[in-house]
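Exercise 7. Given the encoded structure of a 259-residue chain, write a plausible sequence.
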């Protein structure tokens, strides 16, 4: 089964490029369209109703561009809207949520940390997952301000360092041995996070797992591209395209488009 239509990926901003990058690395011949709704970022402070409406708007745009499956590369959108998306659209969706399971199953101290947005930590999906691990202490921390600093291009600012130290030190004091990054923006903070955490604390994000799941869905339901050469991705942003271009190391063009 072959299908040469593109894979659609959307996020509230630039963070989902960490997910896109893992997909592109595993499936380089697949066409991809990445949509950054950075005009409305961050999603984490919005209501569930707002997140569902914005997610549907993003899906409509990707379907207009003939996407064959859609990756919701945003933890907040996944945990708040993916049920509604799957109910309303006849297309496969792949979501991302904090990787609590591998952290809890492998933790020696039985204490793990979750750094995520308010929208993710408040969601029903997150709390149902967390309840499955009653024997593990989960230290939850809302990453207030992190997404906005990343979206503004202040990845390595003193303010970012100060925020990260204030969020991570209580987790270190609580004896975590795994830190789960519960927002697709946060993998870009790993170099700074590693400077703060002791070496024995493992960091987990969802990129590789989402890429493998995308491959599985293509194999089982949708079909792979039969294009031989490496595909050139397409990127859209509805605000601040220069920030998205910068996070992509200026390797790709970014189209600014209102949607």
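Solution.
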């Amino acid at each position: 089964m072959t299908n040469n239509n593109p894979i659609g990926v959307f996020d509230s901003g630039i963070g989902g490029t960490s997910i896109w990058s893992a997909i592109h690395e595993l499936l380089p011949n697949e066409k991809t369209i990445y949509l950054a709704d950075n005009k409305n970022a961050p999603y984490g402070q919005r209501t569930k109703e707002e997140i569902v409406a914005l997610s549907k708007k993003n899906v409509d745009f990707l379907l207009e561009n003939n996407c064959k499956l859609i990756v919701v590369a945003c933890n907040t959108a996944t945990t708040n809207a993916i049920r509604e998306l799957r109910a309303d659209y006849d297309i496969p969706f792949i979501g991302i949520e904090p990787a609590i399971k591998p952290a809890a199953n492998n933790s020696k101290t039985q204490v793990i940390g979750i750094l995520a947005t308010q929208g993710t930590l408040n969601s029903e999906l997150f709390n149902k997952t967390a309840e499955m691990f009653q024997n593990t202490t989960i230290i939850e921390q809302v990453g207030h301000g992190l997404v906005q600093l990343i979206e503004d291009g202040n990845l390595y600012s003193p303010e970012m360092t100060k925020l990260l130290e204030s969020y991570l030190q209580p987790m270190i004091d609580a004896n975590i041995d795994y830190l789960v990054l519960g927002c697709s923006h946060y993998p870009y903070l790993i170099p700074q996070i590693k400077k703060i955490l002791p070496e024995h604390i493992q960091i987990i994000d969802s990129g590789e797992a989402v890429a493998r799941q995308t491959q599985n869905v293509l194999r089982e339901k949708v079909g792979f591209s039969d294009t031989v050469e490496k595909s050139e991705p397409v990127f859209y942003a509805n605000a601040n395209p220069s920030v998205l271009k910068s996070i992509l190391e200026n390797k790709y063009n970014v189209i600014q488009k209102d949607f």
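Remark. DSSP finds eleven helices and ten strands in the chain. Students should compare their own answers with the one above.
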